[in-house]
Amino acid sequence: MSIDTLSVQAYNATHALPTPTSSPPPSSPQLKQSPSFLALSKPMVTKPLRKVSIIATFHKMIQDLDGRDKSLKFIQYLFKILLHHRLVNPKLWSPLTSQFSMTRKLLRLGHVIGPIRELAAGPSSVIESLILLNAIGNDLADDIYCIFKLGLVGPRLGKRAELVAYYCWFVGILVDLQSNFKTLRRLEKEQDEEKAFMTKVSIVKLLMDGIFCSCDIWQPSFANGVQAWAGFFSGSLSGYKLWQKCAKS
User: Fold this and answer.
1) Which run of H or E residues covers position 177?
2) Cα(108)–Cα(113) distance, rounded to whole angstroms?
3) Based on the number of CB atoms within 10 Å of its own CB, is 15 exposed (0-12), middle (13-18) or buried (19 or more)?
């Protein structure tokens, strides 16, 4: 063997291509998904939005006995304002306003049971006992006056019950005002703005009740107009408070 042949064999051994090994079968290419498509590929779970409609809130409000009373009070004193300023026909609307008043008295008939049960349960202090006794006197006198308007008792007892109800209501208003002012000071220190605002609404409502009750007791010459407006504002504010309560429940 010549030197040229050996050099050729050495060259071929050095520069020969490697024997291919078995390779895995080609896999299908995978496309990268953008984050937006990845989000769409997952099942979307939506939470139902809590939407409180006006109709649902009003329905919840009139289901309560107090809500019916507040609704009738608003309508009653709205028409009393219109009657006082002679904006509607008195022959048509005056009897209807009186019927609203009587209906509200019937709705509150038997309300005295509440404070009687509280008194029987045992109040925590003498002051609380006196407050409950005043509430019992107020509600009981209101019931007797309502029965008088139905013609079941005589006018002598009915008129006395009416006067007792006025004074007991006035005392109750003063007690509630003192309690609400105390609550307002505490809420302002705690910086609870929402509850403080509703307490202010209660205070204004009680002031309107105080004006109304004062006209019942002392009967000034301008009582009709003042009571119409005071009753309207009182009914509006108490209705607003109950509306907010029903909307949140």
Assistant:
1) helix 155-190
2) 11
3) exposed
How far is 60 from 68, CA to CA, in rounded Å? Answer: 10
Radius of gyration of the chain (CA): 40
Is the pTM here over 0.85, yes or no? no
DSSP, collapsed to helix, strand or coil, labels residue 195 as helix
Q: Is the Cα torsion angle 79, 81, 86, 91 positive or negative in sign? A: positive
For the chain, what percent of residues have pLDDT higher than 70? Answer: 79
Beta carbons of 212 and 230 less than 8 angstroms apart? yes
Q: Which of 63-67, 103-107, 110-114, 233-237 has the lowest mean pLDDT?
A: 63-67
User: Phi and psi (nearest 5°) for 219?
Assistant: 50, 65
**CA-CA-CA-CA torsion for 122, 126, 129, 130, nearest 10 degrees?**
170
**Helices then strands, each counted (H, E), the chain:** 10, 0
Please write down the HEC assignment for all residues of 5-52. HHHHHHHHHHHCCCCCCCCCCCCCCCCCCCHHHHHHHCCCCCCCCCCC
Contact 134, 175 (CB under 8 A): yes
- The whole-angstrom separation of Cα 77 and Cα 228 is 6
Of the candidates 106, 213, 118, 227, the residue with the CA atom closest to the CA atom of residue 167: 213
Q: How far apart are CA 89 and CA 201, in angstroms?
A: 33
Residue 214 has pLDDT above 90, yes or no: yes
pLDDT value for 119: 92
